[in-house]
Amino acid sequence: MPRRVGPVPGYEHVLLGQMDGLSPRCAAGVLFCLRSLEDYNPDRIDRCAVGFGEETYAMFIPNCPAWRLAVTVRSELDGPFAYRHGLVPDTWQRCTEAIRVAREQFGM
Fold this sequence. Notes:
Layout: E1 4-7, H1 13-19, H2 24-37, E2 47-51, E3 54-60, E4 67-74, E5 81-89, H3 94-106
């Protein structure tokens, strides 16, 4: 069963607004990542945090060296779900930033 992928309710605009300023190749890389989330888990090397049935990642984006895609994968009773939080800079603090964005959107 494919995983559902979507924004945290109330944050639908975040990634869409960020994609406006990306190069076409980078934007295509983001779309590739979102489609791959439907069937595959992100690479474990991109994992930033694990806890209570969810994992937060700063996913590598093909053709987009300056950015990572912050996502949280959750195990849900009615099937798995992946939340797309938005782009974070691809620096050594990418995990800190991905966790911060996820916590902010989840109201934690």
